[in-house]
Every structure is written in structure tokens, then in C-alpha cells.
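Molecular record:
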Amino acid sequence: MPWDEYTLEQFESALPRGEYDESEYYGPYNSLLNDLFPKQEHYMVVPQYKRPEQSKSVDFTTVFLVRHQKHPVFFVEIKPAGHIHNVSPRASADKQMRERFEDLGDRVEIPILYGVSAIGNKLCFYKYTKATGDLEPELIPSNARRVIDTAPINRWDVDILTPQGEQRLLEVVGHVKGMCAQMRQGN
């Protein structure tokens, strides 16, 4: 089932400014997450604004964290659409996602925590398995003597505005909700 016209309208309104201004995507992603994780089902979408701890940069990161029973169950980090074409911003986005999993890992109560790096409409899905500590996609290490693309563009291969992108996101959301339901039954 395709996204409703209001969701599409919100994402389409992010451009052209969303090419370089990630804040143009805050409203569309916030609305979508609130639709996918409604408060009536005891979810809460919490925008968080964080500055990278080890960076001297003023590049603040905006994260939309979804909580259920006060525990993180899903999150999205947003970057401008124009970052998709350059190695350095993709590498920074990947690093920030990995830092976020480190920050949240101890508070995760469900078996798998999913996170999404959104560069405009393009999504890269991350998956943290609590029992093993595994994080996918696997880290591509940098090299002090060679320029290596540590966050290849093909990782952001899901376009949220396509039927395939919608289906992929809905599959992940369905898995998250299933794990939350099992957690509720276990309490």
C-alpha cells in the first residue's frame, strides 16, 4: 500500500532546500515516525539533538529516537540529501550511527535494535543484535595511507518514496513492533 498523499507531499516539500539543509526533513520524518509508532500503542518519538563528542565540529546530529516503555526500539538519523554524493559526509553519517548504537546499547531491551541513516530520502538500515553485540552493516576500517570509502553509496540503496522502500521500512517496523509485543507479554 503506497504512502498516503500527505506523507508524499511532506517529503516532496523538503526539496530543493533539503539538498543542503537537513532540517527540511525533520518534519516529514517526525510525522512518518509518529504514524508508524503511534502513541496509542505506547510509543513515543523523541527528537534528540547531539553534537559528536570527539569532534571539534559544530555538526549537530538530529536523531529521532522511538521509545517503548522508556526503552529505545528504533531510531533515525537525518542528513541532507546532497551528502549522498560525497565520501566524507557518508563516512561521518556512518560513524555517528555507530556511536549512537554504542550510546543506546546498554538500554536496549528487545533482541534487535534497528537504526536508519537517512540521507534525504535514501536509507541505510543498521541492525544491532543485543545477544552477540553484532552490528550490521560491517565496519569498513579506514587506512592511514590510503583513501578508502568506508561508507559506500550503495549502502543507502533504499528510497523511502518508492514502493520497495516503503515495504522495507514497514517490514522493519513490523519486526520492531513484534519484539515490543513479546517484551510486553514477558513483563
Strands lie at 43-50, 61-68, 71-79, 112-119, 122-129, 134-136, 158-159. The longest strand covers residues 71-79.
